[in-house]
Amino acid sequence: MDAKFSFASNGRLTTPAAPIHSEGNYFTIPGMVNAHSHSFQRVMRGLVEKKQRGQGDDDFWSWRALMYEIASNASAEDLELIGTWCFLDCLKTGFTHVGEFHYVHHKPDGSRYTPSYHLSKCLMNAARKVGIQLTVLHTAYHWNGPDDPAKGAQRRFIFNSVEEYLRHVLHALEQDDIEPHKQGLAIHSIRAVPETWLRPIAEFCATHQLPLHVHAAEQRKELEICQKVYGTSPIGLLLKHGVLGPNTTVVHGTHVDSADLEAMATSGATVCICPSTERNLGDGLAPIADYLKHQIPLAIGTDSHVRIDAVDELRSLEDHERLRLERRLVWLDHVPSLAEGLISVACQNGQRSLAPFQPAQNTDEVWIKIPVHLQEAPAEHTIQDWLLGGSGRDISRVKINGEWVLENGISTRLDEQGLGERVGKLLARYQTATAG
Ligand SMILES: [Zn+2]
């Protein structure tokens, strides 16, 4: 028997009561969605875990300086290669759809490519090579901070006006080389985008029925800047300008108060938590229990790709809450089983985050190996064993759009050895760039 989880008409996950006895000792789940990615940051793993000369405490802001250094050096070819490598890693852990929060738009000196969305095309090419679904979220970016002009590497990110940014997006939407339904918009943050841009961007998304993502409430310093300049929280500012809605995903939402939670719940927004990156950057712990209590849908993302493992991101949503609240089984206050809660986050909520205006159907399949000792166990035991202790290495087969793109954990499309060698050469360049 091919034991599968299925979604009932009410959208809830139903677990098969019978033991799993699939032919090859697998259980399957629908494709999982990585709702927040910056693929180029994959090269930073391992290079940014050292103190810089003359620097005291290391935090998000010093990490960001190194990220800029890398972003300023990457060619279009480099970005496509890194994207291919990163998306393959995503596929191998069971992600079948990635949302790329894409803000490196221009040439290193800030001049525009022709067409202006050339780098979006490179990322789409990378995803096609892997066979994974990609939604490119064209990201608005204008300045370093309120009334503080962009500097250095930020030249690659910025648009001079909201009109220029929306023209860029419209141009990409009108072309055939990126499918319109695989695109969306993003506001980098309330730091990088002026207040006056917020409403036109939200209205554009409503008119064109597109998803809208925004980094918000990630860092305490961001809250301080927002309070000082705008007299409210980042979530409050988004609410004021009509940015929050059912097609909106707030990325991080680490530091929120009760008014913020109320605003997000009322608007129907999704919150995308990125546990491994938030941990790595020392952001803090998002109040998962409060989100569940307010019935705010949660999705997951691997963000900076310091770790790419879907199941690890998922279990962190419970593990982090145990550490924050000093108790166990937090999710079971809100869902009948951990399996139902966490798989729904990865599958349904992720899909809703990237495709809020499209019918909720997920025909992709992820096949997970069942260890011998669990081959007679009930389905819920098996899947929870994997959720708590498994890893991406347990993913054996993945089918996307009817095609097996991963078999026995290996890409059916790519020469993985050759890809690894090309990436190795590229990494050698970055090792030199970040030395010292
Ligand atoms: Zn991010």
Give a description of the structure.
The protein has about 425 residues and is α/β, with parallel strands linked by helices. It has helices at about 60-75, 75-90, 120-130, 160-175, 195-210, 220-230, 235-240, 260-265, 275-280, 290-295, 310-325, 340-355, 380-390, 415-435; strands at about 5, 15, 25-30, 30-35, 95-100, 135-140, 185, 210-215, 250, 270-275, 300, 365-370, 395-400, 405, 410. α2 runs parallel beside α3 (about 120-130) and α11 (about 310-325) packs across α12 (about 340-355). The longest helix has 18 residues, at about 415-435. Zinc ion binds near residues 38, 215, 251 and 303.
In short:
By secondary structure, the chain is of the alpha/beta class. The chain has helices spanning 60-73, 76-92, 118-130, 162-174, 195-208, 220-230, 234-240, 258-267, 275-281, 288-293, 310-325, 338-354, 379-389, 416-433, and strands at 6-7, 13-14, 26-30, 32-37, 95-102, 133-140, 183-187, 212-216, 248-252, 270-273, 298-300, 365-369, 395-400, 403-407, 410-411.
Topology:
Blueprint: E1 6-7, E2 13-14, E3 26-30, E4 32-37, H1 60-73, H2 76-92, E5 95-102, H3 118-130, E6 133-140, H4 162-174, E7 183-187, H5 195-208, E8 212-216, H6 220-230, H7 234-240, E9 248-252, H8 258-267, E10 270-273, H9 275-281, H10 288-293, E11 298-300, H11 310-325, H12 338-354, E12 365-369, H13 379-389, E13 395-400, E14 403-407, E15 410-411, H14 416-433
Parallel strand pairs: 4-5, 5-6, 6-7, 7-8, 8-9, 9-10, 10-11
Antiparallel strand pairs: 1-2, 3-12, 12-13, 13-14, 14-15
Helix pairs in contact: 2-3, 2-14, 11-12
The structure holds zinc ion.
Zinc ion is lined by residues 36, 38, 101, 215, 251, 303.
